[in-house]
């Protein structure tokens, strides 16, 4: 199950800066975006926290009996 404040991967709509390393993010580049705190991360900095979030969300779905991994 997904919620509106779940982090997601999307295409940058404008030029910005990575919230972790400070590198430039150009318009049209793939980024990880956290809507709850309105932060964008480059692919290098965002992959680990995004993967951890998706893993815990999948665990929660399985525990609640929903999603593709539910038994």
Give descriptors for this structure.
alpha+beta; 30% helix; 71 residues; 1 helix; two-stranded antiparallel sheet; 3-stranded antiparallel beta sheet
Could you say how many structural domains there are in total? 1
Alpha plus pi helix count: 1
SS elements, strand count? 5
Low-pLDDT stretches are none
In one word, what is the shape? elongated
Mean pLDDT: 92
Describe the sheet with the most strands: 3 strands, antiparallel
Helix content: 25-40%
Q: Strand order of the main beta sheet, please?
A: 1-4-5
Helix and strand pattern: EEEEEH
> Separation of termini?
16 Å
Rg, please?
14 Å
Structural class: alpha+beta
Q: What percentage of amino acids are in beta strands?
A: 15-25%
Notes on the protein architecture:
With 71 residues, this protein is an alpha+beta fold. The chain has one domain (8-63). 30% of the residues lie in helices and 23% in strands. The chain contains 1 helix and 5 strands, in the order E-E-E-E-E-H. The strands form 2 sheets. Strands 1-4-5 form a 3-stranded antiparallel β-sheet. Strand 2 (16-17) and strand 3 form a beta hairpin. The longest helix is centred in the C-terminal third of the chain and has 21 residues, at 43-63. The two termini are 16 Å apart.
């Amino acid at each position: 199950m997904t919620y509106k404040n779940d982090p997601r991967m999307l295409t940058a709509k404008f030029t910005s800066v990575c919230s972790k390393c400070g590198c430039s993010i150009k318009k049209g580049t793939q980024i990880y975006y956290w809507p709850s705190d309105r932060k964008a991360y480059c692919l290098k900095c965002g992959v680990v926290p995004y993967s951890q979030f998706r893993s815990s969300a999948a665990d929660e779905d399985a525990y609640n009996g929903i999603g593709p991994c539910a038994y």
